[in-house]
Amino acid sequence: MLKCRSNNNYYHFYYYYYYYYYYYYYYYYYYYYYYYYYYYYYYYCYYYYYYYYCYCCCCCCYYYYYYYFFYYCFYYYYYYYYNNNYYYYNYYFYYF
To answer: Which residues cross the membrane (predicted)?
Structure first.
């Protein structure tokens, strides 16, 4: 179990990433009709990210769990897109 952290910079780091993925969430929502499955899975990931953000980072920040979860989530997306031959969007997964 990781210890709680109260560093302000650490909180802003999560705050930044929260809005960062929040932006991409609306970005793919705009292309919802073109990439329906991608939007669905990305929203699935975003939803759980918001869940972790609210329940883990309001008073405590689980740095390891945060990255572990997103690594698993984006790896899952990458695997999904790889099977569907959407190679053009692979850089999103490597970038995050």
So the answer is: 20-38, 50-78
